[in-house]
Design a protein that fits this description.
The protein has two helices and seven strands; from the N terminus they run βββαβββαβ. By secondary structure, the protein is an alpha+beta fold. The protein has a domain of 76 residues: PH-domain like. It has a four-stranded mixed β-sheet, with helices on one face. Strands 4-5-6 form a three-stranded antiparallel β-sheet, covered by helices on one side. It is globular, with a radius of gyration of 13 Å. The mean pLDDT is 96. Belongs to the UPF0339 family. Duplicated subfamily. Pfam families: DUF1508.
């Protein structure tokens, strides 16, 4: 099964999206957006940029946990991964976003 996007609304009324792999695991999380349309535009940007390896910023957090950001052509962060136990695990996460990021399936959980 291929992955999908979910749009949800935070308690403060802002919107975010996540990209889930086919197994239901969250592999990318967006920032918070004031408008639902902005979250939808963020999804479109992931769909466009996720297959380009140059768009991934491979990082290590202060707690020494590897993670990554997916950036648009304008260098703005579109989404951020979880923290991983190793760089190898992070790189598998990037491959998962590449494989699932182009999906057109969007589940709107905002009601």
């Amino acid at each position: 099964m291929s992955g999908w996007y979910e749009i949800s609304q935070a308690k403060d009324g802002q919107y975010r999206f996540v990209l889930k792999a086919g197994n239901g695991e969250i592999i990318l999380t967006s920032e918070l957006y004031k408008a639902k349309a902005s979250a939808e535009n963020g999804i479109a940007s992931v769909q466009k940029n996720s297959s380009d390896d140059a768009r991934y910023e491979r990082l290590v957090a202060k707690n020494d946990k590897p993670y990554f950001n997916l950036k648009a052509a304008n260098h703005q962060v579109i989404g951020t991964s979880q923290f991983y136990a190793s760089e190898q695990s992070r790189d598998k996460g990037i491959e998962s976003v590449k494989n699932n990021g182009t999906t057109a399936t969007v589940k709107d959980l905002t009601g």
